[in-house]
């Protein structure tokens, strides 16, 4: 067994990029030893400098590109790639879509599950789509600065064009930054846990154009808060809600638990499939409204709803899936862990006049078992979990209730593939193709819909 890395920091070598990892890093090998390189794509010949050497692999950076891939997108700002805003933007969009499809294929091969993966459904205009921004605030050269971290670091790079965000959000961040500068509000310092403004969060309704600005602060006190709030609301007429979120801890978690409405409403509104949604500061809301409609209509179509079904919507968030399918089924039961999101979901049912949906606050893995023990008999179960996927208990409880279909909306193909093994073992098969939908263009995130059907 090797105990030491065969390469050392700052060592230089030349090689061909042979693969792209799930994090979008190019793989270059010295003999058999893999080096992961930022902004290097398969087929390219690069001169690499080692930045960090570990026992089984190393990280490197491109010193010089000796041959470009035809898949390289030459028209993108390098900061977008190297900060991790848009780590895949060095690939032309078609190549990004193919990469996402093949990542799912490979992960299913690894777990020995046969599955067809369809071509990724992409966006026509895959930039400027994000309806939400969480922008770190730090002091650079004595000035409060907004931007993004260099990848694998906490070094803030000043940025004004975030490439994948709604351009109106980019503008709003600069406006808020300038107002905070004007009133000399101290930026947060994560090393000493001092300073005040940690993060600026902005959300903008795609259809409503309503904007929410959240100032995440370390301290309860925010100096000159009245002036700051007045200036933000005057400078940005779309702003309907300004909220202070307090996060006193020395932590990487962005939002704290306490929210104070500084001005305006405590939610903003938006629509999805002509349904009204109210969204609070701590609630999850899909970040790409254009592809979300495609994703959900696809999932609903694949469920082939006839009007009489009992449906479970696990990980229901603010109720987007439940409410958009409600008029095609008998009843929907949702479960969600974030209290504010459940409140939003219940209110959203009410404002849309929808009566056949019920939301429970709790852990999906526990609630699924409770439903099974209560002998609930769902016809269809939707699951839309976070990146860590489902738990074995949830899968056992869900399949024990024997729904005809289990529709898995996944934002992480690695956990999807892992969970598929257990779902198949419990008497289900994959029906049709796994369908990737590009919810997150220019990034390495992969969203997909899979239908598991009960074996007969
Ligand atoms: N289906 C919704 C939300 C999907 S995101 C939509 O499309 O908008 C995943 C959701 O799962 C988030 O709202 C998150 O708060 C919630 N969540 C995370 N862990 C959970 C758990 N263990 N039990 C229930 N909900 C959970």
TrEMBL record:
<feature type="domain" description="TRAM">
    <location>
        <begin position="6"/>
        <end position="64"/>
    </location>
</feature>
<feature type="binding site">
    <location>
        <position position="315"/>
    </location>
    <ligand>
        <name>S-adenosyl-L-methionine</name>
    </ligand>
</feature>
<dbReference type="Pfam" id="PF05958">
    <property type="entry name" value="tRNA_U5-meth_tr"/>
</dbReference>
<feature type="binding site">
    <location>
        <position position="286"/>
    </location>
    <ligand>
        <name>S-adenosyl-L-methionine</name>
    </ligand>
</feature>
<feature type="active site">
    <location>
        <position position="411"/>
    </location>
</feature>
<dbReference type="InterPro" id="IPR030390">
    <property type="entry name" value="MeTrfase_TrmA_AS"/>
</dbReference>
<dbReference type="GO" id="GO:0070475">
    <property type="term" value="P:rRNA base methylation"/>
</dbReference>
<dbReference type="InterPro" id="IPR002792">
    <property type="entry name" value="TRAM_dom"/>
</dbReference>
<dbReference type="InterPro" id="IPR030391">
    <property type="entry name" value="MeTrfase_TrmA_CS"/>
</dbReference>
<dbReference type="InterPro" id="IPR029063">
    <property type="entry name" value="SAM-dependent_MTases_sf"/>
</dbReference>
<comment type="similarity">
    <text>Belongs to the class I-like SAM-binding methyltransferase superfamily. RNA M5U methyltransferase family.</text>
</comment>
<keyword id="KW-0949">S-adenosyl-L-methionine</keyword>
<dbReference type="GO" id="GO:0070041">
    <property type="term" value="F:rRNA (uridine-C5-)-methyltransferase activity"/>
</dbReference>
<keyword id="KW-0489">Methyltransferase</keyword>
<feature type="binding site">
    <location>
        <position position="384"/>
    </location>
    <ligand>
        <name>S-adenosyl-L-methionine</name>
    </ligand>
</feature>
<dbReference type="InterPro" id="IPR012340">
    <property type="entry name" value="NA-bd_OB-fold"/>
</dbReference>
<dbReference type="Pfam" id="PF01938">
    <property type="entry name" value="TRAM"/>
</dbReference>
<protein>
    <submittedName>
        <fullName>23S rRNA (Uracil(1939)-C(5))-methyltransferase RlmD</fullName>
        <ecNumber>2.1.1.190</ecNumber>
    </submittedName>
</protein>
<keyword id="KW-0808">Transferase</keyword>
<dbReference type="InterPro" id="IPR010280">
    <property type="entry name" value="U5_MeTrfase_fam"/>
</dbReference>
<feature type="active site" description="Nucleophile">
    <location>
        <position position="411"/>
    </location>
</feature>
<feature type="binding site">
    <location>
        <position position="336"/>
    </location>
    <ligand>
        <name>S-adenosyl-L-methionine</name>
    </ligand>
</feature>
């Amino acid at each position: 067994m090797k105990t030491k890395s065969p390469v050392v920091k700052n060592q230089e070598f030349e090689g061909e990029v042979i693969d792209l990892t799930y994090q979008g890093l190019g793989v270059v090998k010295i003999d058999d030893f893999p080096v992961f390189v930022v902004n290097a794509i398969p087929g390219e010949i690069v001169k690499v400098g080692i930045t960090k050497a570990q026992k089984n692999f190393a990280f490197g950076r491109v010193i010089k590109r000796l041959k470009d891939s035809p898949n390289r997108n030459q028209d993108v700002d390098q900061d977008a790639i190297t900060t991790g805003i848009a780590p895949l933007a060095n690939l032309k969009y078609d190549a990004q879509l193919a990469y996402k499809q093949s990542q799912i294929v490979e992960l299913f091969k690894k777990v020995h599950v046969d599955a067809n993966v369809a071509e990724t459904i992409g966006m026509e205009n895959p930039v400027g789509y994000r309806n939400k921004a969480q922008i770190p605030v730090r002091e650079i050269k004595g000035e409060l600065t907004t931007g993004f971290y260099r990848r694998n670091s906490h070094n803030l790079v000043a940025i004004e064009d975030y490439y994948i965000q709604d351009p109106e959000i980019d503008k709003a961040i600069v406006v808020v930054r300038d107002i905070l500068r004007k009133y000399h509000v101290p930026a947060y310092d994560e090393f000493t846990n001092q300073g005040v403004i940690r993060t600026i969060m902005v959300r903008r309704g795609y259809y409503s154009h309503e904007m929410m600005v959240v100032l995440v602060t370390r301290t309860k006190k925010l100096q000159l808060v009245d002036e700051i709030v007045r200036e933000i609301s005057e400078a940005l007429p779309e702003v309907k809600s300004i909220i202070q979120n307090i996060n006193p801890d020395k932590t990487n978690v962005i939002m704290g638990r306490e929210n104070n409405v500084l001005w305006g409403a405590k939610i903003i509104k938006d629509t999805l499939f002509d349904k009204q949604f109210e969204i609070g500061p701590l609630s999850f809301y899909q970040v790409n409204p254009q592809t979300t409609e495609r994703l959900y209509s696809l999932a609903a179509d694949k469920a082939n709803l006839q009007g009489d079904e009992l449906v479970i919507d696990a990980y229901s968030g603010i109720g987007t899936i439940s409410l958009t399918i409600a008029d095609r089924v008998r009843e929907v039961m949702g479960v969600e862990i974030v209290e504010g999101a459940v409140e939003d979901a219940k209110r959203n049912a009410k404002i849309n006049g929808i009566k056949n949906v019920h939301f429970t606050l709790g852990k999906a893995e526990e609630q699924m078992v409770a439903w099974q023990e209560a002998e609930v008999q769902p016809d269809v179960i939707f699951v839309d979990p976070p990146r860590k996927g489902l738990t074995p208990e949830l899968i056992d409880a869900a399949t024990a209730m024997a729904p005809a279909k289990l529709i898995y909306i996944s934002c992480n193909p690695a956990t999807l593939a892992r969970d598929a093994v257990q779902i198949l073992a419990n008497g289900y098969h994959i029906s049709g193709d796994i369908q990737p939908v590009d919810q997150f263009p220019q990034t390495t995130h992969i969203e997909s819909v899979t239908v598991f059907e009960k074996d007969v």
